[in-house]
Amino acid sequence: MKPYILPAIRSMKDLEKLAKTDYQTCVLLDTHISHLKGIMQFMQQRQLQPYVHIDLIKGMSHDEFACEYIVQQYRPRGIVSTKMKVIKKAKALGVVTIFRVFIIDSHALERSIELIKRLEPDYVEVLPGIADKVIQQIQQQTGARVIAGGLISTEDEVQRAVDSGATYITTSDRSLW
Predict the structure, then answer these.
(1) Which residues pair with 72 in a beta bridge?
(2) What is the pLDDT of residue 75?
(3) What's the pLDDT tens digit per position in 112-134?
(4) CA dist., res. 59 & res. 158, Å (int)
(5) Given this model, what pLDDT does residue 1 score?
(6) CA distance 157 to 132
(7) Which GO terms describe its molecular function (predicted)?
(8) What total of structural domains would you count in the chain?
(9) 17 sits in which H/E element
(10) Cβ(82)–Cβ(104) under 8 Å?
(11) Are the C-beta atoms of 145 and 167 separated by less than 8 Å?
(12) Hey, is 175 helix, strand or coil?
């Protein structure tokens, strides 16, 4: 087990593999509202603590009300979102917040830094996670703990992200967990 890896769960096969590891936390991505109850029960039975990515639950609105419902109904470890209102609601409900930002150019970087400073999330997930320079810059300018995610598929990329200041690495590449 690598303490800086957060397995990203996209399917039941991922969840079954996760249950056979020593990892206790993960990020739940790409699920459907009709599967959520079963998935959360499976995780609770195995003492797994998920961060639920609200924006990627199909069939559910991606807003603060969905966040409130998920937190009250399932008590996840935390909430992941790209939306400020969702992060604010999750903070108010007392769960760990992960604000996900996509850095595609210098303007997106500047805007993200401004938003991070205003929101003060518990973590910031930077995509793509292979953007070592950006990870370091966001961490230095905001003081936020950074999670690197997206396009990470090798041990070397994981290590570069960690060396750049990432606290965690999210990856759906099962070979890295």
Answers:
(1) none
(2) 97
(3) 999 999 999 999 999 999 999 99
(4) 33
(5) 87
(6) 9
(7) RNA binding; transcription antitermination factor activity, RNA binding
(8) 1
(9) helix 12-19
(10) no
(11) yes
(12) helix
Q: How many CB atoms lie within 10 A of CB 61?
A: 12
**In this structure, which amino acid lies at residue 9?**
I
Spatial CB neighbours of 122, under 8 Å, sequence gap ≥ 6 = 78, 96, 97, 98, 145
Residue 53 buriedness (CB in 10 A; 0-12 / 13-18 / 19+)? buried
For 50, counting Cβ atoms within 10 Å of its Cβ (0-12 exposed, 13-18 middle, 19+ buried), the class is: buried
pLDDT in tens, 130-176: 999 999 999 999 999 999 999 999 999 999 999 999 999 999 999 99
Task: Give me the domain span that covers residue 145.
Answer: 5-176
DSSP letter at 82? Answer: S
Beta strands in 33-177 (DSSP E): 49-53, 57-58, 78-81, 96-102, 123-127, 145-149, 166-171
pLDDT of residue 163: 96
pLDDT tens for 46-92 read 999 999 999 999 999 999 999 999 999 999 999 999 999 999 999 99
CATH number at residue 106: 3.20.20.70
* DSSP code at position 22: S
- Pair 39, 20: CB distance under 8 Å: no
CA–CA separation, 53 and 31 (whole Å): 9
pTM: 0.95
